[in-house]
Design a protein that fits this description.
Elements (H helix, E strand, L loop, with lengths): L1 H6 L5 E5 L2 H6 L6 E5 L6 H14 L65 E7 L4 E6 L9 E2 L14 H21 L10 E6 L5 H10 L4 H4 L2 E6 L17
Parallel strand pairs: 3-6, 6-7
Antiparallel strand pairs: 1-2, 3-4, 4-5
GO biological process, one term: translation
Keywords: Ribonucleoprotein, Ribosomal protein
InterPro entries: Ribosomal_uS11_sf
């Protein structure tokens, strides 16, 4: 039976593994059968070879040789890993653009209640003492950021905080903070935020230095925000006995 298969000319080689039980039943056959053809097999040769293998080894599954494709038209081009049937495209990590949540505003917006003819949204308190200058910008809830003093930034220390230059630098720092708050505030006409300037004490050089900086070129944008100026200096009426004056 194998002689007829060898006589057929084909170049296809089949390697068949024979189980041990089939090898014991078949006498004179090796554990593997190799069939070599000298020409390309036809459908009749394939069917006869399959039938011969089934008759010889009934325990084996049917093997149907598949000839290699010779025409280039039948070869399917490799599919792109990012494409799927239907023309759609699978999104990859590089094609997905990360979406960032909008960052919250740096300063809150809680304006003061409007109780007078000149409504103001914030209050700038200028507290001047003999030793320092304290500037605080507050809204309805309180200060928006820490108080700026003559010693902010640690440029001026100890007794130098009571000088004119320390107060001038503190005023410039407050002006920059006020501009940042005005940029983040909701649109209120063309003025941004509206400031109520409150002086509290006129001792030392702090109040004078702040007023000079506000009236100069550095305070041009801040002057447009001010809608009201008031004096909140406390007036002592009676009360306890004051400390004795310092004598040098």
């Amino acid at each position: 039976m194998f002689r007829n298969a060898v006589a057929s000319s084909s170049k296809l080689t089949l390697g068949v593994a024979v189980p041990r039980a089939a090898a014991r039943q078949s006498s004179g056959f090796a554990t593997s059968a190799r069939v070599t053809f000298a020409r390309s097999p036809s459908r009749s040769d394939e069917s006869s070879t399959t039938t011969t293998l089934r008759e010889t080894f009934p325990n084996l599954a049917a093997l149907t040789p598949t000839p290699a494709a010779t025409s280039t038209s039948s070869v399917r081009p490799p599919r792109s890993p990012t494409s799927v049937p239907g023309g759609s495209r699978i999104p990859t990590i590089s094609s997905l653009s990360p979406t960032r949540a909008p960052s919250p505003p740096k300063y809150r917006w809680d304006p003061l209640p409007t109780t007078d003819d000149t409504p103001s949204t914030h209050t700038l308190t200028v507290m001047s003492t003999r030793n320092n200058l304290l500037l605080t910008l507050s809204d309805r809830q309180g200060p928006l950021f820490p108080t700026i003093t003559g010693g902010t930034g640690k440029t001026f220390k100890n007794a130098a905080r009571s000088g004119y230059e320390a107060a001038h630098q503190a005023a410039l720092k407050m002006f920059e903070k006020m501009k940042e708050v005005s940029r983040e505030a909701p649109v209120r006409g063309s003025r941004g935020i509206q400031i109520r300037l409150a002086y509290k004490g006129f001792q030392g050089q702090g109040a004078e230095a702040f007023s000079q900086a506000l009236g100069g070129n550095e305070g041009g944008d801040v002057r447009k925000m001010i809608v009201k100026v008031e004096d909140r200096t406390g007036v002592k009426i009676g009360g306890t006995r004051a400390r004795k004056p310092r004598r040098l």
